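Appendix C reproduces, verbatim, an entry submitted by the partner laboratory led by Prof. M.T., so that reviewers can inspect both the input and the predicted structure.
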Amino acid sequence: MKLVSYTYKNKLGEPRMGAVHGDRIIDLQESHRQFLLSKSEEADALLLPSNPTDFYHLGRKGIRQAQKAYAYAVEQQVTTAEVERAVVKLELPVPNPGKIICIGTNYADHVKEMNSTIPQHPVLFAKFANSLIGPEDSIEKSPATEKLDYEVELALVIGKRAKGVSREDANQYIAGYTIGNDISARDLQKRTPQWLQGKTLDRSTPIGPWIVTADEIEDPGKLAVKSYVNGELRQSSSTSELIFDVPYLVSFLSELMTLEPGDIILTGTPHGVGFAMDPPQFLKAGDRVTMEIENIGTLENAVIDQDA
């Protein structure tokens, strides 16, 4: 199931939870209402929340209920739960996540091109919610940087509170997977030992277009990963090249902090970033940046000047 957050293009309103079905969106709250009524259950007492943040706080239990509601709506052709894709805008899949944890230097080839060294432990940094945008938003180039760079990354969303979990059990705590573009202002990132100032500029980091539930990704360690700028292939690798794989990262992070449903983890980027090209190639207004990850989909965003 591909989980989305959506709003209507011509209406004011808060984002709602949905799931992709061809050229339509299945509204999960309405489909769940109809599913419960079909079972002669009290709908209002058990209804899935429409708000994406509230939905992800339910964890994997909420996802299981959503899968039942989605299957019912598709099989029974519940028209009251169907929304045409043309009339909606896909928003950030997880609005206001509690934590956005990023892993640096997690592909050996990227470590080499950045003139760094293979880390003995995962390199951690954070982004904040102000930096995140949805799949149909534009990347805003801040006037504070002249060296804006792209980074395609497999991102995962936590689906169950995790504290001190083992590597073997880590997959049980993942709600699903999506694509992240870890936009980086290299001039700001490199001017101090800490990377934060180059990593969390306003409205710079696209996430999406949806979250593919974990049951549909058989092995997150065997996914092709690519990025393009204006149609030119820049990055091409596989998550099999990760230095620290997904289960290890979940286990490692859960030893340091409690991971909560809705938290986002970006797992690192492979070689091919603009900073390492000869000469370096940085993003500018008018560019289109496309991220692709196997079994998840495509995330494409335009770059605009923030002042505009």
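The chain is about 20% helix and 30% strand. Additional entries are available on request from the coordinating office.
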